[in-house]
Design goal:
This protein is of the alpha/beta class. Helix content is 39%, strand content 20%. The termini are far apart.
């Protein structure tokens, strides 16, 4: 279907006669009373014109009764434009209703319901046309604040356009009121982002559920409210939308009913996928990588940490600069421009490249300063014990209890981003430096790992790695594997490593798990220094052998 736009008329207008185009433009300039879905006069004009052209015609009306857009289709359907630029004064709903013709006498179709769902329309109405080109029946459907019998929409009784008796204004006010009352009972903080989590995966059910639970923890760690989560296991991933269109429609309804303003995908999305999903849903869409970057941006305290986070964010952003930027028109040459013929998109990319180059130099400078600090420490011949492990395994809590420190240690993922060092004296008078590092996580963004490579260089100086493991986590074995693989990737697997199984005080840690953990390493509760005896003894023995 060829797309054209003339004023407020868009769609399949090619091949139309001048008087038909003029009639469409007159239609675009009309209004209806607020109380009517469509006036009888407009319904008649719409049907006669659609009958003459043998093409479906749709009208988007605001709540004030103004025609915002006229859309021309073909015999079978219409293709609605993006509604983001259209004026609307809705609450939870879009503030626009669609009335369009059907030429074969059919009522509301599945495609119509998809438009109702995806666009959050106030109302979707279909006008059937009689054999002499006049309005026959007006069929209408609207969304529901809560699903009834598995359906998120309901149908109104069909009427002739001239027989409308109910006030559309009263109807939509009551419907918006139902939505508002439903959310009022959910105690949602409107100042807080409210997310629905989406995971589309080919993994086994258990791994998929663990990964989605981890996404929920990441989301809460970023102070985002999780309203709902959707897990879909598929043999083949939709390359455009990741998730099926029908399931995406269900998510949109859930977002409308729960007042969610954010979709967070567990899989990394490419720029085209983000754009497609955003176009369909008109919601903010981010992926797991972007979420982790946001957490890091909030938590980084040191100058080096902030520089590294900014570098990772810019590297993530660079390939995602929209090629649909409205500002792609050519810039004129002259003073103050970066050269004739360069687009604004190219200018943005150039600025990011320039900033990345400056960040690289600053990080090199900070790295040299850190190397000098390490050199001074080496001259004092103090051995180094480095805590590593999956995020939220309890490394910072262990360091606090070991050294009577007050490092931030909360039950959130990535609570520690900046390396922290403290002195520790072992029972037999051996003194060591203990360092705490950023926690690892599965599918850690490559740019982020690269950006934090300088921080993790601290581990190269370690004489002993203490791998802290959350024994209470159902997926602790997979977490151990993730850490081992990342240590190999960072070429740290040659450093001696002691496995320390933490959180043995949790209720779900039974004797069988404890027996397994004692075979693999030592067991502790980082909150209870009384459990540290075997750990300190084993660590001191290993350090003594290493330093001999």
């Amino acid at each position: 279907m060829e797309e054209n736009k003339i004023g407020n008329v868009s769609g399949n207008t090619s091949g139309l006669k001048k008087h038909q185009l003029a009639a469409l433009e007159r239609l675009a300039g009309k209004r209806v009373a607020r109380e009517e879905v469509i006036s009888p006069e407009m319904a008649k004009a719409l049907c006669q014109l659609s009958f003459e052209m043998n093409r479906q015609i749709g009208i988007l009306l605001s709540r004030a009764g103004k025609v915002e857009q006229v859309v021309v289709g073909d015999f079978k359907g219409i293709m609605l434009p993006r509604l983001g630029a259209l004026r609307s004064a809705g609450g939870r709903l879009k503030g626009l209703r669609l009335v369009h013709t059907h030429l074969a006498g059919e009522e509301i179709s599945d495609e119509d319901l998809m438009d109702l769902l995806f666009l959050r329309l106030d109302l979707l109405s279909v006008l059937t046309i009689s054999q002499d080109g006049l309005p026959e029946r007006l069929y209408s459907a609207h969304l529901l604040p809560a699903a009834v019998s598995g359906k998120s929409w309901a149908f109104l009784e069909p009427v002739h356009p001239a027989a409308q008796t109910d006030s559309f204004t009263d109807f939509i006010a009551a419907l918006e009121g139902q939505f508002s009352r439903l959310q009022a009972t959910s105690e949602v903080d409107k100042g807080q982002d409210r997310a629905i989590l989406v995971s589309v995966t080919m993994e086994a059910q258990i791994q998929a559920e663990e990964s989605l639970a981890e996404l929920a923890e990441l989301t809460r760690s970023d102070d985002i409210l999780v309203l709902d989560s959707v897990l879909q296991r598929k043999r083949k991933i939709n390359p455009r939308l990741i998730i099926g269109k029908g399931r995406l429609a269900e998510i949109m309804i859930k977002a409308l009913q729960l007042d969610a303003n954010l979709l967070i995908f567990n899989q990394e999305l490419n720029p085209s996928q983000i754009r497609s999903i955003t176009d369909y849903t008109e919601m903010r869409v981010i992926d797991r990588t972007q979420l982790i970057l946001d957490i890091f941006a909030h938590r980084a305290l040191s100058r080096e940490g902030r520089l590294q986070v900014e570098m990772a964010q810019l590297k993530y952003m660079l390939p995602r600069l929209s090629t649909r930027d409205d500002a792609l028109s050519r810039l004129s040459g002259g003073i103050g421009t970066r050269g004739p013929g360069e687009t604004k998109l190219e200018t943005h990319r150039r600025r990011i490249d320039d900033r990345l180059a400056r960040l690289t130099k600053e990080l090199e400078h900070v790295g040299r300063e850190r190397y000098r600090r390490r050199s001074r420490r080496r001259k004092k011949e103090l051995p180094v014990l480095s805590l590593v492990g999956y995020t939220n395994a309890g490394k910072s809590t262990l360091l606090n209890t070991l050294t009577n420190s007050d490092i931030v240690a909360v039950d959130k993922l990535f609570a520690t981003l900046d390396p922290t060092s403290r002195r520790l004296r072992f029972p037999h008078e051996m003194e060591v430096i203990v360092t705490d590092t950023v926690g690892f996580i599965r599918h850690l963004p490559a740019d982020l790992l690269q950006a934090f490579a300088a921080t993790l260089e601290e581990l190269q100086e370690a004489d002993l790695l203490v791998h802290v493991i959350d024994l209470s986590s159902p997926g602790f074995r997979e977490q151990m594997q993730v850490v081992d693989e990342l240590l190999r990737e960072l070429e740290l697997d040659s450093i001696p490593c002691l496995k320390v199984f933490n959180k043995i005080d949790r209720e779900n840690v039974g004797e069988q798990l404890l027996a397994y953990a004692r075979e693999e390493g030592v067991v502790i509760s980082a909150l209870d220094a009384g459990t540290f005896g075997p750990f300190l003894e084993r660590a001191e023995q290993m350090m003594g052998k290493i330093l001999r």
